[in-house]
Amino acid sequence: MRQPLRERLDQGCARLGSPVADLSDAQRNALLNYIDLLVHWNSRFNLTAVRDPLEMIGRHLLDSLAAIAAFDASPVLDLGTGAGLPGIALAIARPELQFVLLDSVGKKTRFVRQAAASLELGNVKVVQARFESYQPVEKFATITARALAPLDALWSGSTHLRQPGATLLAYKGHRPDEEMAALTAAGIGVTAQRLEVPFVTGERHLIRIYSNPDTYG
User: Fold this and answer.
1) What percentage of residues in the chain have a pLDDT greater than 70?
2) 3-class secondary structure for 100-131?
3) How many whole angstroms separate alpha carbon 89 and alpha carbon 60?
4) Rounded distance, CA 107 to CA 177, Å?
5) H or E stretch including 209?
6) pTM value?
7) Which is nearest to 209 in space by CA: 134, 122, 143, 117?
8) What is the tens place of the pLDDT at every residue in 58-75?
9) C-beta of residue 134 within 8 angstroms of C-beta of residue 158
10) Sign of dihedral through CA atoms 130, 183, 170, 75?
11) For residues 164 and 162, what is the distance between their CA atoms, to the nearest angstrom?
12) How far apart are the first and last CA of the chain?
C-alpha cells in the first residue's frame, strides 16, 4: 500500500508547486509515516472520519500543505489540532519553525504526542487544554486553525495568545464572506486566498486575519 500513497503524495506535491514540490525524500517519508500512524490509531480511537489512506493524502496532508507559504513567523500555535492537522504536516515541511499543537481532547493529544515523538519532530510541543484557558509562557507570532470555529470567535478568543502584529490563518471551505465582513466592520484586517488542493473536491480557502489592515495588500 505504501507505493500508491507515495505516488499520490508526489503527484500532489508537484501540483502544489514550490515550496511543497521541493520537499526532500526524508520529509515525504515522514509525511507517509504520519499517515501510517494515523491509520493505526484511527482504527481504535476514531481520530478522523477519513478512513481511506489514499484520501488522507489529499484531505489531510495536501490540504494542510497548500497554505505553507503563508507560514513565515514562529512560534506557531495550531488551535484545535485534532489528529495533528495542519500542525504535524507543517512541522515536517518547515523544520525551522516552532509549533505548539493544542487540543482539549485527551485521546487526540496522546496520539499527536506519540506521532511527534515517533517522527522525531523536535520543533513540536503538544498541549492538552482549551484555547480559551491556555496561558502560554511565550505568545505566538502565527496562530492557525482548521475548520474550528467562526472567524470572530477565533480572533477574539485568541487575543491572550497573540504577539503584537500576530497573524491568524484559518483554513475554511467556502469563502466565509459574512464572517469576513463582520471583521472588516470591526476594523480588523482580513483577506481570503483560494487554495487549489490536489485530489480534494470542493472549495478551500485560507483566511488571513490581522490587526492592522495596512499590513498586507
Assistant:
1) 97
2) EEEECCHHHHHHHHHHHHHCCCCCEEEEECCC
3) 8
4) 34
5) strand 204-210
6) 0.94
7) 143
8) 999 999 999 999 999 999
9) no
10) negative
11) 6
12) 44
**The pLDDT of residue 192 is above 70:** yes
Residue 122 has pLDDT above 90, yes or no: yes
Concatenated DSSP letters of 146-175: ES-S-HHHHHHHTGGGEEEEEEEEEEESS-
Q: How many residues does the chain have?
A: 217
Q: Is the C-alpha dihedral spanning 180, 174, 85, 88 positive or negative?
A: negative
Provide the CB-side half-sphere exposure for 197 (13 A, CA).
27
Look at residues 143, 179, 178, 137 and name the one whose alpha carbon lies nearest to residue 158: 143
**Residue 148 binned pLDDT confidence (cut-offs 50, 70, 90):** confident
The strand pairing partners of 199, in sequence order, are none
- Residue identified by cell 484531505 is 59
CA atoms within 13 A on the CB side of 195: 32
Q: What confidence tens digit (pLDDT) does each residue in 82-121 have?
A: 999 999 999 999 999 999 999 999 999 999 999 999 999 9
Cell 504526542 -> residue:
113
When the pLDDT of each residue in the chain is averaged and rounded to a whole number, the result is 94
Q: What is the pLDDT of residue 212?
A: 60
* CA–CA gap between residue 209 and residue 165 (Å, rounded): 10
Whole-number pLDDT of residue 44: 86
